[in-house]
Design a protein that fits this description.
Elements lengths: L4 H10 L2 H8 L3 E7 L2 E5 L4 E4 L5 E2 L4 E4 L4 E6 L3 E5 L4 E10 L2 E17 L6 E6 L2 E5 L3 E7 L2 E8 L2 E5 L2 E5 L3 E6 L2 E6 L4 H17 L12
Parallel strand pairs: 9-10
Antiparallel strand pairs: 1-4, 1-6, 2-3, 2-5, 5-8, 6-7, 7-9, 8-9, 9-12, 10-11, 11-14, 12-13, 13-16, 14-15, 16-17
Amino acid sequence: MKRPLFLILFFFLSGLPGLRAQDDGVRFRTILSKGNVTAYRDENDETARLYTNQMVDDGDKLTTGKDSEAVLRMKGWATLYLAPRSRIQFEKLRNGDKGPQCWIRLITGRMVCQLDRPFPGAFEIHAGSVRSHEHGTLFEAIRKGESLELVSYEGSLVADYHGKSKLAKDREVIRMDKGKFRSRSYHLDRHKLADLKAFQDLLERIQDLTPVPGTSRP
């Protein structure tokens, strides 16, 4: 029996890489959850412990407690580290007409992100009214109260705040305090270099941690 033409087209188009990515969505999978790490699920308005191999979706909010940390992986694109006593919200995780969109709001604490390659769409870090557009492949954001640091380890980033923009190139730091750009450093101090080394060491330790689909707890 011959299949209708629309079914043939459906099966053909569903096999295209671009459409498969759109079906899968732009999502992060937890590859390390240490200590007290919780996730607020926007879709069901519930907060629960975040376990290894669980997915994170658009709208979800993650919180790490004292001596707690988490590492998440966007397959083929990015590795995200969340330090102790930090909180972030995934404001946008989706595919759009201009490529994948990843907007992460840093509410408090510290996050580091390593991209496998330059992001083809929009990768942004938001903190208060600041929007940091990430054009590089390794960057960090630290927020404590009204203070914000944006670090570009590899590549560049552009921070926008109420019509004003600041550019940080390779290994430069932008500092803001109480809604004002305070300074830009053209080199990394020993503390930033130590943070970078610790993150790189962590990536080496977890590079073989590939979660098995279907399992959600350590």
